[in-house]
Amino acid sequence: MIRGVIIMNDQGKPRLVKFYEFQPVEKQQELVRSIYRSRRAENVSNFVKVDSLFGPDVRLVYKTFATLYFVFIFDNSENELAMLDLMQVFVETLDKCFSNVCELDVVFNFKKVHTILDEIILGGQVLETSSSEVVKAVEEISKMESNGNSIISSIPGWQGR
Amino acid sequence: MKRQVFTCRYKELGNIRTRFSPLKSRVQSREEGLTHYEKKKYVWKMLYIYMLGYDVDFGHMEAVSLISAPKYPEKQVGYIVTSCLLNENHDFLRLAINTVRNDIIGRNETFQCLALTLVGNIGGREFAESLAPDVQKLLISSSCRPLVRKKAALCLLRLFRKNPDVVNIDGWSDRMAQLLDERDFGVLTSSMSLLVALVSNNHDAYWNCLPKCVKILERLARNQDVPPEYTYYGIPSPWLQVKTLRALQYFPTVEDPNTRRSLFENNASHAVLFEALALVMHLDAEKEMMSQCVALLGKFIAVREPNIRYLGLENMTRMLMVTEVQDIIKRHQAQIITSLKDPDISIRRRALDLLYGMCDVSNAKDIVEELLQYLSTADFAMREELSLKAAILAEKFAPDLSWYVDVILQLIDKAGDFVSDDIWFRVVQFVTNNEDLQPYAALKAREYLDKPAIHETMVKVSAYILGEYSHLLARGPACSPKEIFSIIHEKLPTVSTSTIPILLSTYAKILMHTQPPDQELQHQIWAIFSKYESCIDAEIQQRAVEYHALSMKGAALMDILAEMPKFPERQSSLIRKAENTEADTAEQSAAKLRAQQQASNALVVTDQRPANGTLPVNQLGLVKVPIMSNADQIIAEQGVTHENGALTVVDPQPQLPSTPSPDLLEDLLGPLAIEGPSGTGPQSEPRVASGFERGENADALAIAPVEEQANTVQPIGSIAERFHALCLKDSGVLYEDPYIQIGIKAEWRAHHGRYVIFLGNKNTAPLSSVQASILPPSHLNTELSLVPETIPPRAQVQCPLEVINLRPSRDLAVLDFSYKFGTQVVNVKLRLPAVFNKFLQPITVSAEEFFPQWRSLSGPPLKLQEVVRGVRPMPIAELANLLNSLRLMVCPGLDPNANNLIASTTFYSESTRAMLCLIRIETDPADRTQLRMTVASGDPTLTFELKEFIKEQIVYIPVPPQSPAPMPPQARPTSPPTAISDPGALLAGLL
């Protein structure tokens, strides 16, 4: 299963941290820091074995997009390359929802990022692999939100663009 | 508000702190009546702050209460924040269960989605109990949208994974089969994940899903009926393909026609391809297909894309398990060696693993030399692994022994820091056991010593080898004893204290080999010995003193310092180590099911042999260096079997103050230091028999009649006797009954102790529910490693136990041990012989040292005196022996009265550190049942405890504990009337 998803920027500041097995907050931060420290050069493989942090057979795959650093942590029941591609789907979906996603989008709409992630991964398993399906579901939710509460849409910058 | 959020997120941490407390107080002051909107705002902020790493310990209640809000946005916040902040056992979650359930069985699909997401992400037991049936209903309901059903599938999967006992999946195979007919790919992918979990749990029940899986693969492979949004870069849903292939791997091997495809343009297809390869391996397909796979992998490891190289190497390592293709893999050796120079350390590691795995006699020389070359450029993170692997390969596949010696010496030279002691011990063993090798090794060692700066390990090896065999070189240039001595002695100032004893032994050996004696050399060496006689390190000091005294003896030296006898053959500890780790790297995923599950770090030793024991010497034998005793030895010591007695029996009553820790170093140097002639006996013959020794012993053990023991399990032999024996020695049997034998072996270093507990199953059926725990007294810190649940038939399990002595006390640790054999549950509580005297270190004191000390410790509580009565009568020599065996060193000659004994020892504990203890015992030749004892040390508790301890040992305890009742009146008059006066003064007066 997928153990966790982390998005951080190139200074190691977490932008999204989601674990599918509960981790106490200190542990979370420790993990984020040690993962940040183990970042590697561009031209090497994207897989790192992280037995020392998570126990045996756990590995992580990472990819850098502009200033953001995406990390998926998963165990041996998942295929490494499939995870890399799932990350691609995630980024593509973010890109579609925010039209040209950048770090600030993730910061200001981190609620929406959570929603998107929940549409792709559920309880550590792949839920949906088609980014267009995900976008459809997220749009539906946004519609619900604006209908459900008129105040919220009047707050600038809070709601997705 | 945007600005507020902005500052909150982008200013320094202090800023966050200042925002933190108003937020906290706002959230907590609920009475003021926060609007839903405000609540929502603050709860989102809480999540953000939590993500930044601050422990948000407030507002959980608010988050949970938002779940029951009627409007979607608030509900959504509640659900998302709750699933991030709370763990499955949080109390607040209970409050939400009802709301969650209502949302799930309600009509609103978006609410259903939110609720399913929460349950799927948290997956707690209570959720499983109350919600699993509803989730199952949702999954198979035809009226639900796919959006909901795919979530239901994963939600169920999570609940099942976490609490397989709660979720009822009886009869689900038909439903799963139905689900696999689903047309929507989202639902299909989720259902496939669920199927993988169900099948991995019990594949028999899901046979009917197998054809469906194959059908899905076919549909995907032919690209029929795949909606365009699920086509990823031209590949029809690679995730589903991967998952389906995974699912197939869990089924036992069947004929499976269409799993191979050869399209590869990008990642996605590679993912599919790797899964397909794994499946091919799983199915154990015919050789042709295998060789195709290897050829494909060979291409992969040469591509530029690092991810593919990495996986290529990893999969090739897995392929090694298939014997037929090993030769084909060897064709790629050159490419793999190039991968050792890859810029990516992950890839270098894989390449090393692969090289290690593919090495055999035919290519060992190439590979090891390549590894050695690589060693000097390799990064530090890898050097240890690299040197260990090179050493193992060299040992396993050495074409000739001189090559092996070359390799190891090169290894030490190049990466001395990373060469563990095991490696050089092994080389010494080889050299000792092979006479042809000795001159060569000595020559090599001599050459290395000429190098300007050599590693300390190299000093150790060369010194040892030259000490033993330098006389074989005597005719060579610059190899006279004097020259060799001076070149070794040059290194002395640079080495650490652990090496000095080895050097001292070497000097003693050189001295012995120099016949006729060279006066000048002799004096030089004697000077060194006498210099170290006052060394602070006990080991060095002892050696210096002993060698000095021995070397004065002249001709007798020849016998005592004779060449080391051959070592009994034993399996290399390195290979053992490697075998243990190999299991980790070998196979994963589906194959894991077939592997035995061992949730224990204890070492299980069974009769299995290494598969490729090409060297006959490596057959079997002892296991790991520090714990070299195994069942054989323990049994031998107990005198149960006699054949191999000569091999391993050590004198159970150590007369000399030897350090009893039998690690290999001791083993190498021990006989030379202490045992003398007894070690020179013929020891090579019993080795022949060692191949079946273990089997024989096992049989011998099994003779114990199992059937006759009807109901209760009776221990064999007296537990108390065994315990008392073990108080005086460090290895032996602690407990034995018809099913199990528990042996222990201990090593002591100051206040640290290390036990290895051997649990040997004597039967042909496994012992289950094995449990062991230590009930330590307050003064001992103990740490017992995990004990495996079951002990396989005829197997022996070793569990290390660490003991640290905190302060002086005579309390005992208890080993609480239980197991189940058949239906019988056996529970025994055994005293652990981690007794007071184990933390003593005998020490000799001279008269000059003794008397000032004795006087300075005047009177209670540091010095205590007691007249002990009811003593077991024994002659004075026996009493001295008893004291010596308790590690109280009797110092003869200090007290002129032959009826008195003076003993000294050092006690180690964390609180007292090393503390000198002095004991004086005055006996009465007329009445051996009483004596007067005076104990002194720098710590009042220690003095008291030591006194009581000795008393316990000498008092006659048996049947009626205080039987000599009429004794005291008789005894009293004989005790001298001066007993009250200070015995120190008395003693001084006597002298």
Walk me through the structure:
Chain B: It comes from Rehmannia glutinosa. Chain B: Pfam families: Adaptin_N (PF01602), Alpha_adaptin_C (PF02296), Alpha_adaptinC2 (PF02883). Chain B: Belongs to the adaptor complexes large subunit family. Chain B: Keywords: Coated pit, Endocytosis, Membrane, Protein transport, Transport. Chain B: This is AP-2 complex subunit alpha. The complex is a heterodimer of chains A (161) and B (991). Chain A is globular and about 45 Å long. Mean pLDDT of chain A is 80; it is low at 149-161. Chain A has helices at residues 25-37, 51-54, 80-98, 103-108, 110-120, 131-148, 150-154; strands at residues 2-9, 14-19, 47-49, 59-65, 68-74, 121-122, 125-126. In chain A, a hairpin with a 2-residue loop joins strand 4 and strand 5 (68-74). Chain A has one domain: Beta-Lactamase. A five-stranded antiparallel β-sheet of chain A has the order 2-1-5-4-3, with helices on both faces. Chain A contains seven helices and seven strands; from the N terminus they run ββαβαββαααββαα. Chain A starts with a strand and ends in a 7-residue tail after the last helix. Chain A is an alpha+beta fold. Chain B is α+β, with helices and mostly antiparallel strands and 991 residues long. Among the domains of chain B are: 2-252, Leucine-rich Repeat Variant; 417-560; 699-834, Gamma-adaptin ear (GAE) domain (Immunoglobulin-like, Sandwich); 838-985, TATA-Binding Protein. Chain B is built from 42 helices and 17 strands. In chain B, helix 9 packs parallel to helix 11, helix 16 packs parallel to helix 19 (345-358) and helix 28 (519-532) runs antiparallel to helix 29 (538-552).
